[in-house]
Structure formats: structure tokens, C-alpha cells
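Each record in this resource describes a single protein on a pair of labelled lines. An example record follows, reproduced without changes.
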Amino acid sequence: MSPVPDPTTLLILGGTTEGYALAEALAGRPGVRVISSLAGRTPSPRRPAGELRSGGFGGVAGLKDYLAAEGVAAVVDATHPFAATMGEHAAAACAELAVPLLRLERPPWRPVPGDRWEPVADWDGAIAALRTLGARRVLLALGRQELAPFAVLDEIRFLIRCVSAPDPLPPFADAEILLDRGPFDLAAERALLDTHRIDCIVCKNSGGSASAAKLQAARERAIPVVMRERPARPASAVVADVAAAARWLRNALRSS
């Protein structure tokens, strides 16, 4: 009787909807071992299909050690579009070990007629844009770890929407926390902007449908959106959906 070959190990750097969907699509396949790695910043995250590890790797060297120890045959970087450091580490580690690397990334949002977007490269630019716009009641639709730069704006009342409570909360002069998780529907976003009399939104260009309704609601009300653009990523193969990622993996593993 022939020995059963070891399964092919795939590492998904996850945390996004696309990462969860890819793990779900691959985890049940015979001969495939799927490990999803989450950053560990969100309390009680949803568990993906397959195996799970949580927390950082310890830089490029730590990721290289992990890939070698687990015998990883391919890596899919399905981290958030703004997780630039993890993307850089994955590119460097995979290049040094000749491990195939794919970036699975949802397309960014694009402005359409009627949008009043103020694109910025960083939060300093966002603060300058809010001052130029004369904003007074602002929806901050950001992660809880990115709030502190805005605490200098004492003249603005902030509605801070995030998944889990910031701890500690930066010293805002006037702020309200709204704990909520998408997807957000259009009717709810319209009501939110109207109830809180929001006159500007600050967000990141995350793309996807889960949090896009706020952009339509803002468009309808001619509310400006200060939009932080995505950071540059290392050059690599990129696909926008799970089906394309699965095809890429089949081809990459067939030729490796």
C-alpha cells in the first residue's frame, strides 16, 4: 500500500471577508491543509475554516521561520488593504524562500458623479482637509487604533464608529462612540447621517460592499468625504475574488 502523501499547506494572511471566503472554499478539499493567520487585534474574531493562528510573526525573519517550519507551499495575502507592513513582510519572506505569493484584494472604491471626495495620503492630510472644509460634526469611520490624530480638533464633534471600543479613548473634546459592525444598509446610513447632523465623513478606501452605503448616503446629501487612499504594496500577482485566487493557486502549485 502506497504511503499517503503529506497535504499541501497553504497560508492565508487573513482577517478580511475575502480571506474567510477563501479559507471556506479550500479547507475541505482533500490533500490541502489551510492555515489562516489573523493579526489578533480584534477581540473574539470569527474563526475561519481550517486551522487558525493568531498574532504577529516577528517580522520577515519570523515569517520565514514559520513558512519553513510548516512547509508552506504558497501564501495568499488577504489582509486589509491598509495592512501595508504585513504585505511588505510577506513579499520579502516569500521572495527569499521562493514561495509563491498572491495578493487577494477587493477593488478600491471609485468616485462617481455627485461625490465630494477629498483624497488624502495620511491622517495629517485628513486633519488639514477637515479644517479647510470647516467641518463641525464628523463621522469617523475608522479602526479604533487610528483615532488619536483627530483628538487635536477641539472644535469638531466626532461620531466614532468602530467594531470594538478604543482602550483608552484618545482625549477628544467632544466625541460619541458607536460600536457597530457592517454590513451597513443604505436606509440605516441615511438615518445615521441625518440623526447626528453629520457634515463630513472620514474613512479609508477599503472597498467592498459592507461599508459602501455611507458613500451613497453622503452623495445624496452633498456631504464631503475625506478619503484616505490605499498605501502602495509590493509588486506581486493580484486577484480581486476568491474564484480567481483558487485558479491561481492551482496553477502555482502545479508548476512548483
